[in-house]
Amino acid sequence: MIKITALGNYGVYDSEMKNDIMSTYCKSEKGCELFRYLLVNYGKKINKELLLELFWPGMSNKSARQNLSSTLYFIRHAFDRILGNGLGKKICRTTNQSAWLEFDENIWYDVEDFNNEIKLANKTSNNDEKIEHLMKAATLYNGDYMTEDAYNDWVIPVRDELRDIAISALVELTELLLKKDRINESMFYNVRLMQIDPYNENAIKNKIKILETQGRITEARNIYVKYAGHLKKRFNATPGSEISEMANDLEHKYAHCTEKGTEFSDSFDVPTNVGKMGAILMDFETFMELSRFESMQREPRGAILSFKLNGFEDMEIENKKSIIMKLGSSMRRGDVITYSGNNIYILLIKSGQAFSRAVQQRIIEKEGFIDLVKKLGMSLVSEIYKLKNLNDYLIFESAFRT
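-> structure tokens emitted (402 positions)
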């Protein structure tokens, strides 16, 4: 089998994902570029005259056609080297007027799989099936399409279309999981959504709903304030009516908490319906704000556990989710987990050094977690950062920045 990936990292790989077929066997840069163009237009027959104008402008028609013919040969030859002589013609197809790509069961293309999962999700009326298909689609969307061709006009419309589809899918997935009280999974995919589109209004609304569900009124209110400030500063606009109504409701709840003298950190009691994951999953920015706040308490006793996993940043979403969920299930309700780059961070609320070391050791020795780390060929480095005062927080922040 040949595996073609274009979401996140582009490559045309053999079955073991070790050798990039085009860069190894296609001895023509123009051939590699032409293949990408045909891939972007997969499912369409492209008129050869258009290819001549695009790739050999200003050349005589005869010379341009000779160049096209030899370039198509280089593409086919690359596939012949992997699949066998003559099979390249079955992939890179031509007539006198057109050229196109055609894949059979020997070719796996992530964009086709992604689009298929979206179609299946849209077709079913069963929400459990819909969630399953949307999760698979989210796993396949590892980043923007064809980032190597950042400025080619023929890539940009497809990239934008796939990005919009992914955003819509993540919004729907987050909302479906939230309705089913699968809170931490909902938060996971909403964090993913905000990595792609940080100020997506639906993502902001879902984040506020999630935080409200967890009783974290102050954080929910702060999310709205930041969002409203961004709209005002960037676009001189105001939030929509639905999110504004949510904000008004938050203000009433916040005022009620203030009247009762409720502490900010008291809002981290997690409902019993969050599933197996004990720790709350949140985005990195909010995690840092909470950590800073924890270090400034009258009697701070928190600590941050840091787990550095080489290759975590480039890992598929589903594997990231598995690791985070395994770690989170080891935590107490009220602890907080986040990730950034190759690092996973856990904030242990009101925890002494001895307890923090015990938790760290428990995680390092956790069979399911370590087995997964080894299976993925990763190495693990773990550290503890105490949070007894603001200076401790600044030390942690400095370590992260470097």
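Residues 156-179 form the longest helix (24 residues).
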